[in-house]
Amino acid sequence: MLDSEVPQEGNSTLGGHRKAMYARGADGKLHIVQSAGWEVEEIVTKQAVNDLLRLTEDARQRVLAGQTSPLEYHMYRVRMDVPLLAQASGIWQWRIRRHFRPAVFAGLSAALLATYADAMGISVEQLKKAD
Known about the structure:
Order of helices and strands: EEHHHHHHH
CATH topology of the largest domain: 434 Repressor (Amino-terminal Domain)
Number of domains: 2
Helix content: 40-55%
Number of helices: 7
Shape: elongated
Largest sheet: 2 strands, antiparallel
CATH architecture of the largest domain: Orthogonal Bundle
Strand content: 5-15%
Radius of gyration: 20 Å
Number of strands: 2
CATH class of the largest domain: Mainly Alpha
């Protein structure tokens, strides 16, 4: 894309900020160009956020019903998925999914709970409940 083709339509999800994009200048070299975003990006971002909000609420309902652990709820609440939580925490994905089981979650060590809490930027006390 050329410098002059960088989208400037505006994107409410950027909150009035601009973002950097790479574009080819008249000299044929790549440059960083500020962009106000574009409508398609805004639509996709809003869809992704709405999906995460739905997953968060579904997980909260399952926690209250005793079908999953608060770990799953908080993972979605902080806009993560299993692969991202695995990367942030250093815990294998299959172990994370196993820790979604309430009985298994209840037996986790304080160190493992602290690892999860640190990866999600919350306290261990918050991690233990879904509210």
